[in-house]
Design brief:
Oligomer: single chain
Number of strands: 10
Number of helices: 16
Structural class: alpha+beta
Number of domains: 2
Strand content: 15-25%
Largest sheet: 6 strands, mixed, barrel
Radius of gyration: 33 Å
Distance between the termini: 30 Å
Shape: elongated
């Protein structure tokens, strides 16, 4: 590209005298591109933040990896535990017992998922020990039949710390009157709050030994739970571990157990990306209209340049420079504004809520009452690249039309 092509293109970006309207349309095109890029960056960052927050809460209650047996009973579990702990990706592992039951207190009855754990090892597997509101996991002792329940579950039952609640297990016992469910009284030793309804309202923790007695497992367990050094490596670690396990044992990681949720989030994220990209597309159409009007307005200038020896490709480059500058400035403004807004979304939302006296995410309705943001610069680069390429493509047709201008036709009525 010659210097005069760049110079003329830059001069055309800033219209003078009688064509202020074209300059105004150019400004609108820049602002439209900036708005679209900024909206894309902010929305993607907020969606990443919500996904990261929910994933952190989810992993605060569930292990990264589990080894389970056919039928839900693992009898010779000590060698399996050693196999799991020998893997370099595994940070900690412990046996667990899991089963369904019902909790009864007063006139209230709630279905629960009962999980038997070793309290002294659970803090290395999940983050439940950090989510305790009352009491501690270490208060669970074998033979004392203590139980730790979620905050929502405690509210639904009307139970408080040290209350005696009845746990009903489906594994019944045969009596002359027929099959009767097993009943056992437990004392509430702790209450936790994770911030997710499936756990806070339906998860109950008891000691591993008490769970084995309740579900009549003897020395067997349901499986082995493990925590990885890097949770993102869970799919790879589970596949490698599966090759080492005997027949009848299966390794399952947290991404597989929650695959439907993460697929839904990814689909929603893609759809939002496509929908918000339409703003960038509209801005690109504005660039097309701006250049078409500029070409029409500059017919005489184009004819003079052609008469002075400018080649058609030079004319095309001049108007491409004009469109690219509009798109580039809009993209840079959008990227800058998007990064600043995404990095300070909490403060901005707080200011708006305080200014208008509203609350976007009420604490009594939503478990996440703040707007989390996870700004990823690879996505910022992707959005910026798409916006710039879109603006570049938008310049091709008007610039080609300008290059086809015939000097004699353009100067006939001048």
């Amino acid at each position: 590209m010659h210097a005069f092509e760049l110079l003329v293109g830059l001069r055309y970006v800033r219209a003078k005298r009688r064509n202020h309207f074209i300059s105004f349309i150019s400004l609108i095109s820049m602002l439209g591109m900036a708005l679209g890029v900024m909206a894309l960056i902010v929305v993607l960052s907020v969606m990443n933040g919500f996904q990261k927050e929910i994933r952190a809460r989810m992993l605060g209650a569930t292990p990264h990896l589990e080894v389970i047996a056919d039928g839900g009973r693992l009898f010779d579990w000590q060698p399996v535990l050693q196999t799991v702990t020998r893997q370099p990706q595994i940070a900690a592992a412990a046996p667990y017992v899991q089963g369904q039951g019902m909790l009864s207190f007063g006139q209230s009855v709630q279905g629960v998922m009962v999980r038997g754990i070793l309290p002294e090892q659970e803090s290395a597997i999940t983050g439940l020990s950090e989510k305790m509101k009352v009491g501690a996991l270490e208060d669970l002792h074998a033979g004392e039949f203590g139980i730790v329940i979620g905050k929502d579950l405690a509210r639904a039952l009307g139970a408080r710390i040290n209350d005696k609640i009845l746990l009903i297990a489906p594994q019944g016992q045969i009596t002359p009157a027929g099959m009767l469910p097993r009943l056992k009284q437990f004392r509430v030793t702790g209450i936790f709050e994770i911030g997710m309804a499936p756990y806070d309202s339906s998860l109950a923790l008891i000691h591993l030994g008490d769970a084995q007695k309740l579900f009549q497992l003897g020395e067997a367990v349901t499986g082995i739970s493990a925590r990885l050094h890097d949770s993102e490596q869970a799919p790879i670690a589970s596949q490698e571990l599966q090759t080492l396990l005997p027949t009848g044992l299966y390794a399952s990681d947290w991404t597989r157990q929650n695959s439907n949720y993460f697929r839904a989030v990814q689909m929603e994220k893609r759809m939002m990306f496509i929908i918000l990209s339409l703003i960038v597309a509209v801005a690109a159409f504005n660039i097309v209209s701006t250049l078409v009007m500029a070409v029409t307005d500059k017919q005489a200038d184009i004819a003079i340049l052609r008469t002075l020896g400018a080649a058609p490709r030079s004319i095309m480059r001049i108007f491409m420079v004009q469109g690219v500058i509009i798109g580039l400035i809009g993209t840079l403004l959008g990227v800058t504004g998007g990064i600043l807004l995404a990095s300070n979304i909490g403060a901005v939302i707080g200011f708006i809520e305080h200014l208008f006296g509203i609350q976007f995410l009420a604490k009594d309705v939503y478990y996440i009452s703040d707007f989390p943001s996870d700004l990823r610069y690879d996505e910022v680069a992707l959005v910026g690249s798409i916006a710039f390429l879109t603006s570049l493509l938008a310049t091709i047709y008007p610039s080609w039309r300008a290059a086809q201008t015939q000097p004699a036709e353009a100067l006939r009525y001048e």
